[in-house]
Structure formats: structure tokens, C-alpha cells
Amino acid sequence: MDILLVASAFNSLCQRAYVELSDLGHRVEVVLASHGDDAVRAAVRETDPELIVAPMLRTAVPEDVWRTRPCLIVHPGPPGDRGPSSLDWAVAEGAPRWGVTVLQAEAAMDAGDVWASVPFTVAPVGKSDLYRQEVSDAALAAVRQAVERYAGGSFKPRPQSDPSIGVVWRDFFRQERRRVDWAADDTATVLRKLRGADSQPGVLDELLGQEVFLHGGHPEDRLRGRPGELLATRNGGVCRATRDGAVWIPELRPRRGSGDPAPFRRPATDVLGDRVRGLPEDLVPLELPAERRTWADIGYRRLGDVGLLSFGFPGGAMSTDQCRRLLAAYRYALARPTSVLVLGGGRDFFSNGIHLNVIEAAADPAGESWTNLNAMDDLAEAVLRTTDRLVVAALGGNAAAGGAMLALAADEVWCRAGVVLNPHYRRMGLYGSELWTYSLPRRVGEAEAARLTGEALPVSAATAVRLGLADRLVPVAPGAFRPEVERLAGALAADPRLPERIAAKRAARERDEARRPLAEYRRDELARMRRVFFDPAAPYHALRSAFVRKVPSGSPRPLAPVPEPGGAAGR
């Protein structure tokens, strides 16, 4: 069918709906409702869709649209749940089970007839992680079911007046409910509040005399102090005491009007600056003992002949410091006696490349862009130059731009079913680096590499395997991905043909190096990136600022052809 997706943003769920419906053979277009009702009406006129689906919508579909076209709304709550903060309430109330419902659009919010609903178990993770994983899985299962039912023509959606549906209205989840009472709330309560707002909107608080939003929360098992007191720093995060323990907060966002010129999320110590200079830095070993209950964004474990280098950075962005620490950890892993090394394996984002928020807040954004990119390149090159073992990139979550290209530097790429890849840079006005001009064509060929980076469209995990971008699809639930990766990696390490594969890999790298050294690929990529970074008129700077500050920019049709900024393919 011809399907039009209407969404407030082309976010992870909207992208997944686009790629998976496209994989099923539907012709899918997207329009952003954030550009106004007239943009939606124009898209409807131009595409003349048989069906409209709204995967993520903060505003109502224009009445003249839903009255004349079949329009299905994806609501992140079970049948009968109504209101704008469904998932917030699920996390706040500790709901063990929740659901996603696909509804017919009508005048009353979330009151339409039910086309499909899929339940899921609520994992004890942050709201954004839950949204990109369990919610996303349930949402796409429900969307596929609803689309099939609509196409079949015989299904009658269930009205919410049905006695079996209990209707519950949940109000907007306001900051007053999110506030932490550091003197009264125990650690479990603090963590629930922080995790319920980890990405958006954050928990408003005052820290060292500054109004900030707290983003993310992790338990700490050893540090203690007066409730509300800052106890230590670690890798950009700060540890804060509760009445019965402590929590780690990785990121802060200054409140607008607080006087901070960079009112967007970034590492907590970057926001607080000199005010935390006197705090001790509480570092933990890379191989953290299993009994520890604390926060570490990078970790290493060895299971026989398999090394597991895990990492997880908020939003998937990797700053200069994070890249350098991960490279040091990678070198540590190479010093351990293993035949298979797994990168990633976590639930959420694998990587989205350089840290645009940190860059935007820097005194010299062009210089920080350059430094950050070189740190990413160092990491990608280290992976490509590893010839004494097999390296696997395990993507439990999405990857984009330089993060997607980092994954391609590995020998094998394993993706959980449902992962979305964006192997391109163009929509941020960049040519890209991370040695993609070597690693992408060697997997998919020159023509396909040019198409992927030129069209700049998302790709499903299933399509990635078909194209050669990925090697294995892992069809498991989010919580089962890590143990399944460990099992598969163990089998790979035990394969008697592995020494031959490693020898063949080493020989291929030597041949490729003789044909054209990696240093030449990197030099040519960086030359093009340098011209963009240090050109104040390059579109990258305006696009980066708009992205970081969440200012709508560009076309209301996010899949429209992207012009080549400055003659270079962009991010």
C-alpha cells in the first residue's frame, strides 16, 4: 500500500516504522507534523496515501485529514489508557507490564477504536531505553498487525466502549511529580524518578547554586554522605548522596534562562565546571567485580577465549574523552589472550558518532569537532588494524554516522532484530570519516556505498544483512541480546576453522594495505572534513546547532533528497 507516516520527529520509532513497513513492500513517505498542519495537508495531497500511520505524535492530526483518510495512531499504553504521558506513568508507578495500542484517530485524545494492541514486560531501565527497545518492539508488532488487518478489509476495530476495556485518563506528568526530595526519598525512589525522565524532560533540581535538569540515574554501592551532597566524579558524571545510599548522574542540562549559554544536555562535570574541581575522582577498574553495583560506561570481561568490551554512552554520542577512554580499553582488551573480541553487546545505542552537544558547547566548536573526529578515527583504525583475533561488533541498539562506520570496522557485525542503521553523514552537512571510504565499499561495493551515503536513508537490520552491512540477525528480546551474543561468540571461538579465518584476515589486510594504505583513506577523508569544520559558512554549523538545541530545521519531508553541502556528501 501507499502509507504516509505522520510524526512530530523522525525519531527512532518513526525510522523503524519506515524501514520495516518498506521491507514488507509498502511504499512509505514521511511528513513531520512539527512543521504545522498545512505541511501535513500538503503531504496528504501529494502522496494520496491509502493509509496514514502516526508512530510518534505530540499534536493532533488535522480533523479534515482524519475524517477523510484512515488514520492510525500509535499510543504507548494498553487499551483504555489515555493521556500524553503514558510511559512516564508506567515507569513512575513501577508497572510490571504495559502495552502499545494502535487506535483509529478521532476528536477525543486516545479514544478511537482499537486496531491492535501488544503487551510487553517493563524492564528496570531508563524510559528512553525502554522506549527504543521493548516499546519499539511492541509498537512495530502492533503496527504490522493493524496494517495487515486494514489491508484485509474484513477486520472490525474494537470500540473503547467495549466493557472489557477499562478506560483510565492519566494527566500530563509534570515536574512537581518528578522532583527528588533528597532528604526523604530512598535510593530506589530517586532512581525511579531519574530513570522516568532520563532523556526527556529530565528532573529539575538545584545543584551548587544552579538550576539544572538531571538526566540518567545509576545506583552506587559504596559512597555515602549527607542527602543531596555531591560525593565524587567519574568519567563526566557526578555521584550524589541519597538518604540511604547514592546515585550516579551522568548528564545535566542547564535550565533556559539560568545564564548558561549552552542549555542542552552534556556531561555533568562539563556543566558544573570549576565548582566540582575539589571533588575526588572515584574511578573503577575496567574489569569490575561482579558483585559491584555502580556505574561504569566502559567494561571488560573475559569468558574463556572470548573478550567482551562493553560500552554505553548517553544518546550514543561519543566525546573526545569517551573515544580516548574506549581506545585505551580496546588496547587493554587486545593484551588479553582471546581469539574473539566483542565490541558492544548492550541494550541501547551502539554509537552515533561524535558528540555534537559537547562540540556545540565548546569555546571553539570547529577545533573540538576536529579533535573529536580524530579520536573517533583512532578508534576505528585500531579495530581495522587488529589482525590477531576476530572482532565482532554487537549492536543491541541503533547506530548512525560515525558510530555505524565504527561497527563496520569489525570483522563481523551482529544486529538485534529491530535495530536501525543510518550509515551516512550527509544530513548533518558532513562527508564523514572513521575510514568509511575503506570499510563500507569492502562490504557492499562502490555503487551501493555511494547510494547509501548519497540517499542518506535509514536501513533495517534485516536489510543490512541482505546488503552485507551486517552479518548476523539476532532475533531475541532486548534483555536476551547480551547472553545470546556471549553464546554465539563462544561458539565462534570454539570453531576449529577460526585460526584459518584469522590468518586469512591478516593476509587480506596486508594485501589491502599494499594496494592503498589506511593512512591514505584517513588523510583524504580528514582533508574534506577539515574544510567543512573550519568554514564558518558551512551548513554543518547551523545544522549542528539546530539539532543540539532541538530547533526544527530543513524540510517537513525528512526523506526528501538532500543537497550536497559544499560539494561534499554530508551527515
Keywords:
alpha/beta; Rossmann fold; 2-enoyl-CoA Hydratase, Chain A, domain 1; 3 domains; 37% helix; 20% strand
Structure notes:
The chain is 37% helix and 20% strand. A six-stranded mixed β-sheet has the order 2-1-3-4-6-7, with helices on both faces. Strands 17-18-19-20-22-25 form a six-stranded mixed β-sheet, with helices on both faces. Strands 9-10-15-16 form a four-stranded antiparallel β-sheet. The chain folds into three domains: 2-169, Formyl transferase, N-terminal domain (Rossmann fold); 182-276, Roll (Methionyl-tRNA Fmet Formyltransferase, Chain A, domain 2); 298-548, 2-enoyl-CoA Hydratase, Chain A, domain 1. The chain starts with a strand and ends in a 23-residue tail after the last helix. By secondary structure, it is α/β, with parallel strands linked by helices. The model is unreliable at 566-571 (pLDDT under 50).
